[in-house]
Write a structure and sequence with these properties.
The protein is of the alpha/beta class. The protein folds into two domains: 121 residues, Nucleotidyltransferase, domain 5 (2-Layer Sandwich); 154 residues, ATPase, nucleotide binding domain (Nucleotidyltransferase, domain 5), CATH 3.30.420.40. The chain is 40% helix and 24% strand. The protein has eleven helices and 13 strands. The protein has a five-stranded mixed β-sheet, with helices on both faces. A five-stranded mixed β-sheet has the order 11-10-9-12-13, with helices on both faces. The protein has a three-stranded antiparallel β-sheet with strand order 5-6-7. Strand 6 and strand 7 form a beta hairpin. Helix 3 crosses helix 11, helix 6 crosses helix 7 and helix 7 crosses helix 9. The radius of gyration is 19 Å and the shape is globular. The relative contact order is 0.16. The mean pLDDT is 96. The structure holds zinc ion (ZN).
């Protein structure tokens, strides 16, 4: 029914962004600082949902968590930036609290779903989305469906290994894509007093060799990671987003140059590379869209 609405909530380590959504548009929204305790987050979620649902016909709530999520059971398995969130049956807790159907998903998967339905991926069926920020996250849609894998950790694109005995990654392993092309890794690689990637872009624009080389190295490793994904999955589209891509447009240029040289030619045929279109609201929108998908409305 057209008048029916959904609520989407994006739950990150620093902020919680919740909105009432109708036909892909946010009607009203609230942004709050993430409480420190788990109970504080649960209480806030209940209050935000009550407030947004007031006077509206809401068919369900989607929660997007920055962490590993068992989407079938609706449990947060582990969330590195949310203390105390281990094996928490948040679907059951919030359904009891709100009396609404609740669905749970990983936050980057939510962003991927939003780009697929409303952003750069509209009209496609097979795509890979990669978001390069401090770290690197990703989502994969095949035949119109997000892939989760057996342990719900699928599409951890930042942690594909690109070099034996490479630099140490935040996950504890060596040589991950994130350890070469994530924002923190790029900054670390220049070994200078640099705090943000845009400072490296500025130096590269001024012709500084160290900066040009740092962006090239990151761009080439990112290209290698993407080329491998193209070879394995044969997507129609690769969506690139995140703060590092915005701060260093040169990386996108390198990716466009390099991946046709690296991916299997047949899989590379016709693959488009596009920038993500949605902004801050993508996680919230994707969480809301997930409700429609799970209820079988779209
Ligand atoms: Zn890693």
């Amino acid at each position: 029914m057209k008048s029916e609405k959904t609520i989407g909530v994006d739950i990150g380590g620093t902020k919680i962004y919740a909105g009432l959504v109708c036909e892909g548009k946010i009607i009203k929204s609230r942004k709050e600082k993430t409480p420190e305790s788990r109970q504080g987050v649960i209480t806030l979620l209940g209050d935000l949902i009550d407030e947004l649902a007031e006077g509206a016909k809401v068919k369900g709530v989607g929660l997007g968590f920055a962490g590993y999520v068992d989407v079938e059971k609706g449990e947060v398995i582990f969330a590195p930036n949310l203390p105390g969130w281990e094996n928490i049956p948040i679907k059951r807790i919030m359904e009891e609290r709100t009396s609404l159907p609740v669905f749970v998903e990983n936050d980057v998967n939510c962003v991927t779903l939003a780009e697929f339905k409303l952003g750069a991926g509209r009209g496609k069926k097979n795509l890979v989305a990669i978001f390069v920020g401090t770290g690197i996250g990703g989502g994969i849609i095949l035949n119109g469906q997000l892939i989760h894998g057996a342990t719900y950790s699928g599409a951890e694109i930042g942690h594909i290994t690109l070099k034996l005995n490479g630099p140490k990654c935040g996950c504890g392993r060596l040589g991950c894509l994130e350890a070469f092309a994530g924002g923190s890794a790029i900054i670390r690689s220049v070994r200078r007093k640099v705090k943000a990637v845009h400072e490296i872009t500025k130096a590269a624009d001024e012709g500084k060799k160290w900066a040009i080389l740092a962006l090239e190295r990151a761009g080439k490793y990112l290209s290698l990671g993407i080329a491998n994904l193209i070879t394995i999955l044969s997507p129609e589209l690769v969506i690139l987003g995140g703060g590092v891509i915005k701060a260093a447009p040169r990386i996108l240029e390198i990716v466009k140059e390099q991946i046709p040289l690296m991916a299997l030619p047949i899989a590379m045929k016709g693959v488009e590379i596009k920038l993500a279109r949605l902004q801050d609201e993508a996680g919230l929108l994707g969480a809301a869209l997930g409700v429609e998908q799970r209820l079988g409305c779209v």
